[in-house]
Design goal:
Elements: E1 2-6, E2 12-16, H1 22-36, H2 42-49, H3 52-60, E3 62-64, E4 69-71, H4 72-98, H5 111-125, E5 170-171, H6 172-195, H7 199-215, E6 227-231, E7 261-264, H8 268-284, H9 289-308, H10 318-323, H11 330-344, H12 347-353, H13 356-362, H14 380-393, H15 401-418, H16 443-462, E8 467-470, E9 473-476, H17 477-492, H18 516-519, H19 533-537, H20 567-570, H21 574-587
Antiparallel strand pairs: 1-2, 3-4, 5-6, 6-7, 8-9
Helix pairs in contact: 5-21, 6-7, 6-8, 6-21, 7-8, 8-9, 8-11, 9-11, 11-12, 11-13, 11-14, 14-15, 14-16, 16-17, 16-21, 17-21
């Protein structure tokens, strides 16, 4: 049975016979009637009335992207805009990269850094022997290539090393102090040296000196009985006309007179200082294990010789007594044993450095007019600063603490003495501290004090200590830095004469430096012993500029005579320039701070490791 009726949705409706009961059909009809009574909106009517073609076209106008149904036209426009924006951004970025940029130039180096570059060049000008290609001092050449070999009592090569000052004498005592001081500055401030491109240069300077020291004694032996004191002669006997390094005025390259070698058999001060130089250098070159160990072995041999054969090196040498007279060797024992401990980690050296009797002999417990003056002769002030570093950073405790605390307290007293309020030392009207009490050649002592003040202030800062006490009064570390800066700035030109005492720095500096090589032109003419006197006596400026040389300095009235024949004003020395370099690198750059760990690279842990825990308990 079939039944046809009009479909209220707009089409025929066929109802097929099925097995539903009358009651089911009655209920379905009731529901259908409710649905049929609902009015359709225009969209629904258009869907139902549209043909198959119309349905496809309408579906194509929309795009189902999963979570959203959007108009196809809107989607295409959006995608096009995004692609266009990406292309535009790429073009803009390409143009921006193609346009040359004007980088802001780095700030110019500060005066300390500029002076540091120059001060290091002085050591290049002082080299003896066969010069490397990169020496960069055009008026210097190979010189004294027969040193040691020409002395019948020695007959071994002593070629190399450094000339001490304006002559051609090679003196181990001040040279060793110079190398120790340079090594100390590198250990503390290697990052600063590297930042200004001078780390390789200063390491090369130190190695040149250390290699020469290894030639001046039997460095492969465990025990020795002699050490070279000097090469060349500076005898200044009245009326003597014997050619030597003081009587003659010659370029080192032209020297043709005999150069004797002086040795010593009991010279604790010299040997202990040389041991300090090699020990400090071994820390600088710890990245070269074989060379570092070679330096340590030589240092140990020298230090044992210093202890076994007591005596002052200058006692038996007239040249040494006149030029660099040593007043004692106890300070070198404290200084040398401190560096030996840092280079080896052997606690026996620290035990010696902190021995109260040794400190007493060195003068650590009494003042005196020269207390706190750090120089090639007296290293006590430097040793106390070095041992204060050990206490601040490692705090080794018993049995060293008592003496280390004493050294630390004495260091604080020394720093107080540098301040003008305490009047321990006079000052010129221009502000230069007179650490040698108005005697000539004052600047070498000033730069050493500036370095000690700078490095000690950096130690305090690294130990989170804002300052130190002078009696009941507390002073900040900036006070120490201010002292160091004012002294170095005086040397660089902030003085009554507006004179820079570092050759080549600034516009107004000494032009008649007491220096044979700098005063004689390199013109192919061989000037003999007396032939160079005309260059010594001329009032014309030196034909060669010895860049970076710090001259002896002004007098106690801030006066200065730029006269070649007056060495008390115009002569430069290794020891003076080493202190200048150390002070300049400590003050240079924007930041402060020392390398806390490199100094202790060979020092083992101060306390034994704790024992292992006991085995688990078993019932």
């Amino acid at each position: 049975m079939s039944m046809y009726g009009r479909d209220p949705w707009g089409g025929p409706l066929e109802i097929c016979h099925d097995s539903a009961t009358d009651d089911d059909r009655s209920r379905n009809l009731d529901i259908d009637r409710g649905a049929l009574s609902r009015t359709l909106d225009e969209t629904q009517q258009s869907w139902l009335l549209a043909g198959p073609g119309d349905q496809g076209r309408r579906r194509k106008k929309y795009l189902d992207i999963g979570c959203l149904v959007v108009s196809r036209k809107f989607f295409v426009w959006t995608l096009g805009v995004l692609l266009a924006a990406a292309v535009f951004a790429g073009v803009v970025a390409g143009i921006a990269k193609a346009i040359p940029r004007r980088h802001r130039p780095p700030p110019p180096p500060d005066d300390y850094t500029v002076a540091l570059h120059k001060a290091l060049m002085f050591f290049n000008a002082q080299r003896s022997g066969k010069l490397p290609k990169h020496n960069n001092v055009p008026w210097r050449g190979n010189s004294c290539m027969k040193d040691g070999l020409s002395d019948p009592a020695v007959r071994r090569s002593l070629v190399g090393g450094y000339y001490d000052a304006g002559d051609a004498v090679k003196l181990n005592f001040p040279a060793a102090f110079s190398m120790t001081l340079l090594s100390w500055s590198v250990i503390e401030y290697s990052a600063k040296y590297e930042a200004v491109g001078e780390l390789d240069h200063v390491r090369d300077i130190i190695k040149w000196g250390a290699d020469y020291f290894l030639k001046t004694f039997n460095s492969t032996a465990d025990s020795i009985d002699r050490v070279v004191v000097q090469v060349g002669s500076a005898a200044t006997s009245p009326g003597s006309t014997q050619p030597n390094d003081h009587y003659c005025w010659m370029r080192p390259e032209d020297i043709d007179y005999p150069r004797p070698v002086v040795e010593c058999h009991a010279c604790s001060d010299l040997a202990a200082e040389m041991a300090a130089a090699l020990a400090a250098a071994s820390i600088v070159f710890k990245d070269n294990k074989a060379y570092s160990q070679k330096l340590v072995h030589g240092a140990a041999t020298l230090f044992q010789f210093a202890r076994d054969r007591r005596g002052r090196y200058s006692a038996g040498s007239s040249d040494a007594a006149k030029l660099y007279n040593s007043t004692g060797y106890w300070d070198e024992f404290v200084w040398g044993s401190s560096w030996m401990y840092l280079a080896t980690g052997n606690s026996s050296y620290l035990t010696l450095a902190t021995n109260p009797k040794l400190a007493k002999h060195a003068g650590a417990f009494w003042g005196g007019p020269d207390y706190g003056v750090f120089s090639w002769d007296n290293k006590l002030a430097g040793a106390q600063v070095l041992l204060s570093r050990l206490r601040l950073f490692l705090s080794p405790g018993y049995p060293y603490e008592e003496m280390l605390r004493t050294f630390h307290n004495q260091t604080s007293i020394i720093m107080c003495s540098y301040l003008p309020i305490f009047k321990s030392f006079n000052r010129t009207k221009g502000g230069l501290i007179q650490l040698n009490h108005g005697k000539p050649r004052s600047l070498q002592y000033v730069v050493n004090a500036a370095f000690l003040a700078s490095v000690f202030s950096d130690y305090l800062e690294a130990a989170d200590t804002p300052g130190w006490y002078c009696g009941p009064h507390f002073y900040s570390i900036e006070v120490l830095r201010s002292f160091a800066r004012t002294q170095i700035e005086y040397i660089l030109g902030k003085n009554p004469l507006k004179m820079s005492y570092v050759v080549g720095f600034g516009k107004h500096y000494p032009k008649h430096v007491h220096h044979r090589g700098a005063s004689i032109p390199k013109n192919g003419v061989h000037y003999g012993c007396k032939g160079g006197w005309k260059w010594r006596d001329t009032k014309k400026p030196n034909p060669n500029i010895i860049v970076g040389a710090m001259v002896a300095g002004p007098d106690r009235h801030d006066g200065f005579k730029d006269a070649r024949k007056n060495s008390n004003y115009t002569e430069a020395t290794l020891a003076g320039n080493a202190g200048l370099v150390a002070a300049l690198v400590a003050l240079s750059g924007e930041g402060h701070g020392v390398d806390k760990n490199t100094m202790f690279s060979a020092v083992p842990p101060m306390f034994p490791s704790p024992p292992p825990p006991p085995a688990p308990w078993k019932p």
